[in-house]
Each structure stands twice: as C-alpha cells, then as structure tokens.
Amino acid sequence: MYERSWPIDRxxxxxxxxxxxxxxxxxxxxxTGQTMRDEACFWxxxxxxxxxxxxxxxxxGASISLPTFSTLG
Length: 73
Fold this sequence. Notes:
The protein is α+β, with helices and mostly antiparallel strands. The protein has one domain (5-59). The protein has 1 helix and 4 strands, in the order βββαβ. The protein has a two-stranded antiparallel ribbon with strand order 1-2. Strands 3-4 form a two-stranded parallel sheet. It starts with a strand and ends in a 14-residue tail after the last strand.
C-alpha cells in the first residue's frame, strides 16, 4: 500500500504516494479472546519503520447507521 502511487492530473510525469492512512480498530473479540483492537495495534506495531514515513492512525468506525449525515468543509 505504501509503495503504490497514482498520476497527478495536469502534472505530467509526477506521481502521488499515500502519506497518511487509518486502520479500523474494530470493537469485538475473536473466539481466541484476542480483541480486534489488539490485532490492529499489533498490525501497526509490526509495520513500524516499514511505512516509508507514512502516518498511520487507528480509528473507530460506527457499528450502526448514524442518524445524520456528516459534511466536510
């Protein structure tokens, strides 16, 4: 994921790489007793230093539909 790049519109020859990512931390437990949050922490920790300087955050998604729409800006 961190090595992938995309062409930049109206900038011939230039490409853009991912510089920031979010990982859903989950919220449930597996049959083994390990939580999805534990798994997310392990995933981030195991890639420390391998992310080409990218910033990675954990985020908590909504388990149900939200009553209102979010707007950006």
